[in-house]
Structures are given as C-alpha cells and as structure tokens.
C-alpha cells in the first residue's frame, strides 16, 4: 500500500474484521415479545440501521423502521417495539438521548466500544470487535455493525422458527464473506484509483442505489463529504427520476449501484440508461459477471459475485476507496477531516 493513512489501513483490515465478527460468540438473549423494530442512530451508524431495516423486513418479515436520532427520533415508541440503537462509539449524545427517553422499552445496541453508555442503557449490547478506528470516517466499524446485524437477524430467524426460505439459503453463504471482501478489495482498488483520478476536479457527485443498496449510496455520499468535502448526494435511483434528474447535464458524475438478481436490477439499469442519455459521466458498481450494454458505464468498480441481500457488505468497499483516493489526490487530511470530531468507544 505504501501509505500511512489510518483510513486505508482500516479499509484493508475489513476481511479480518469480518472473520472476527463471524467467529465471535453471539449470546442471544430471550427474544423480546415485539411486533416491530425501530432502528435509531446517526451518520454512518444510521446507514447501517437502514441496511438492518431491510434485513428485518426481508429475512425476518418483521416490520422495521429507521429513525434519525440526531433529529430527535423516534418521538414515540408504541408498545411491543424493540429499539435498536447503533453507535460506533456507544457515546453519541443523540443516541444516548433516545435510550434515556424510553426507559421501559426493550433496547438492543451494537457498538465498537466495550464499556460505553450504550452498554449501561441497553438491555443487550454487542461489540463489533473491529479494533480501534482512529480515522474519523468510519469504514471497518460500519462493516462490523452490518455483520452483527446480519448475525442477529439470522439467529433471531432460527430462534423464532420463522423458516423464511431466502434466509435459510443465506445461512449457508455467510462463511464466504471474509474471502469475498478480500477478493473485492483486490479486484476493485485499481479501478477506484482511476475513478478518483478522473474525478480529480469534480465538485459534485450523485450516488444512486436501489433497495438495500440505497443505504450504501447514502453512506458513499457521507464518506465523500467527510473526507473529500465534496458536495455528494446519495439517494434511491427510483427517487432520482422524480425531479432530481433535472440537474444532470453533460459530464455530470454519477455513481450507480446495480446488483444483478435483485428485484430492482432491470429498473435500475433502465434508470441508469436515462441518466446516461442526458450526458452523465456514469460509473457503475456491479458484480464481475453482470451483463449490461457495453456503452452504459464510462467506468466500472467491480465487486465479486454475491447475493443481493448480502451485497452491501461489498458495494460499500469501492466507495470507501474512491473517497480515500480522492482525498489523497487533493492532499487532504484524510484521517482527521476539518470540522469533525470522533468519539472512540
Ligand atoms: C459523527 C461522525 C460520523 C458518525 C456519527 C455517529 O458525527 O462525524 O462519522 O457516523 O458521529 O457516530 P457513532 O459513534 O454514534 O456511530
């Protein structure tokens, strides 16, 4: 790597973080008697909660909601709700406020710290064991949050005898995740360096995702804002068609995440063609064996083939690397961006 950046080191630690998160004991408490789950978190952790929401809805078929703790949500928690609080540090004031506002509701937490306020306030707290993350922009702790959310969802599925067919299929695939992360790092890094170079003068960027990967479009935009100070906006590809697409003009850079096998793939590709037809410089994040028109993407950031429901574990990687290399090209303080402070749990 030839680079002393903490952020780059953290990105490349992700295969071993994944190994640890899959190997660690997962002492499941008795399942609370709930008919909905409310995720509440801030920043990157909120994006992990957005993926968690998709997993609770699809893998467990339990109604799940996402709330912005920084904006004072939830304001109300109906009976039979579980509040799921995610926080890398376990100390973020807005998240702790949510825990304190609803003292009697069952609360579960995921944090990278070992003795945090979240541990004190939640009834069940798991630690991501990602190791200390010194770079301000979260990368490996985000991956750890996703993996623990996934493991809890799969354990909940078994404990509650839910028998959701696609969840049973996924159970057999999670052991491959660390290797898939390593393969993706290997196969996508050079393409990320090239895209970062291409975007060297960019002052704006749109990131599009669909379904479970809309969360990753938002997370990619946050990484770019935090490390590159770039005006980047993440949103769902579908929603982008409903007004925002008016901003596209010749050369406007857009990154779209399109994962074959998803219910939204064909629609996302159709939307990508439309964006391209208005002159966008279109970068695709897709799997290595995806099939699409040769002239659709101006550049491709490949990930290894993976089930769509697991794909956020991989689609975030090229976005982390593009943010890192763009910040490096611009000579920015990658590990300690301006205006930001970070609690380490
Ligand atoms: C800060 C950081 C974000 C981070 C958020 C939540 O504002 O700038 O990068 O995601 O807090 O932090 P937490 O420790 O609760 O995950």
Automatic annotation (TrEMBL):
<dbReference type="Pfam" id="PF01380">
    <property type="entry name" value="SIS"/>
</dbReference>
<dbReference type="InterPro" id="IPR046348">
    <property type="entry name" value="SIS_dom_sf"/>
</dbReference>
<feature type="domain" description="SIS">
    <location>
        <begin position="195"/>
        <end position="337"/>
    </location>
</feature>
<dbReference type="InterPro" id="IPR035490">
    <property type="entry name" value="GlmS/FrlB_SIS"/>
</dbReference>
<dbReference type="GO" id="GO:0005829">
    <property type="term" value="C:cytosol"/>
</dbReference>
<protein>
    <recommendedName>
        <fullName>Glutamine--fructose-6-phosphate aminotransferase [isomerizing]</fullName>
        <ecNumber>2.6.1.16</ecNumber>
    </recommendedName>
</protein>
<dbReference type="GO" id="GO:0006487">
    <property type="term" value="P:protein N-linked glycosylation"/>
</dbReference>
<dbReference type="GO" id="GO:0006002">
    <property type="term" value="P:fructose 6-phosphate metabolic process"/>
</dbReference>
<dbReference type="InterPro" id="IPR035466">
    <property type="entry name" value="GlmS/AgaS_SIS"/>
</dbReference>
<keyword id="KW-0677">Repeat</keyword>
<dbReference type="GO" id="GO:0004360">
    <property type="term" value="F:glutamine-fructose-6-phosphate transaminase (isomerizing) activity"/>
</dbReference>
<feature type="domain" description="SIS">
    <location>
        <begin position="23"/>
        <end position="162"/>
    </location>
</feature>
<dbReference type="GO" id="GO:0006047">
    <property type="term" value="P:UDP-N-acetylglucosamine metabolic process"/>
</dbReference>
<dbReference type="GO" id="GO:0097367">
    <property type="term" value="F:carbohydrate derivative binding"/>
</dbReference>
<dbReference type="InterPro" id="IPR001347">
    <property type="entry name" value="SIS_dom"/>
</dbReference>
């Amino acid at each position: 790597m030839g680079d002393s950046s903490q952020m780059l080191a953290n990105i490349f630690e992700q295969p071993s973080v994944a190994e640890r998160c899959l190997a660690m004991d997962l002492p499941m408490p008795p399942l609370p008697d709930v008919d909905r789950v409310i995720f509440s978190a801030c920043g990157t952790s909120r994006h992990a909660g957005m993926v968690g929401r998709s997993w609770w809805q699809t893998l467990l078929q339990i109604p799940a909601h996402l709330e912005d703790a920084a904006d004072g949500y939830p304001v109300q928690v109906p009976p039979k709700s579980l509040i799921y609080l995610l926080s890398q540090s376990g100390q973020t004031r807005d998240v702790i406020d949510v825990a304190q506002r609803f003292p009697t509701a069952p609360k579960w937490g995921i944090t990278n710290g070992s003795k945090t306020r979240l541990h004190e306030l939640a009834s069940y707290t798991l630690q991501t064991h990602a190791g200390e993350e010194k770079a301000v922009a979260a990368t490996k702790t985000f991956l750890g949050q996703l993996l623990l959310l996934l493991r809890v969802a799969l354990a909940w599925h078994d404990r509650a005898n839910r028998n959701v067919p696609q969840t049973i299929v996924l159970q057999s695939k999670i052991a491959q995740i660390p290797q898939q992360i390593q393969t993706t790092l290997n196969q996508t890094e050079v393409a990320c360096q090239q895209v970062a170079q291409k975007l060297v003068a960019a002052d704006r960027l749109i990131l599009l995702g669909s379904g479970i990967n809309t969360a990753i479009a938002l997370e990619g935009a946050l990484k770019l804002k935090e490390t590159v100070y770039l005006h980047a906006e993440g949103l769902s590809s579908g929603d982008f068609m409903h007004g925002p697409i008016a901003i596209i003009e010749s050369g406007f850079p857009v990154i779209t995440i399109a994962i074959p096998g998803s219910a939204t793939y064909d629609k996302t590709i159709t939307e990508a063609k439309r964006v391209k037809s208005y002159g966008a410089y279109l970068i695709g994040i897709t799997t290595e064996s995806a099939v699409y028109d040769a002239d659709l993407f101006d550049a491709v950031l490949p990930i290894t083939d993976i089930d769509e429901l697991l794909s956020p574990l991989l689609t975030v990687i090229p976005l982390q690397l593009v943010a890192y290399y763009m910040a490096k090209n611009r000579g920015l303080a990658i590990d300690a961006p301006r205006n930001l402070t970070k609690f380490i749990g």
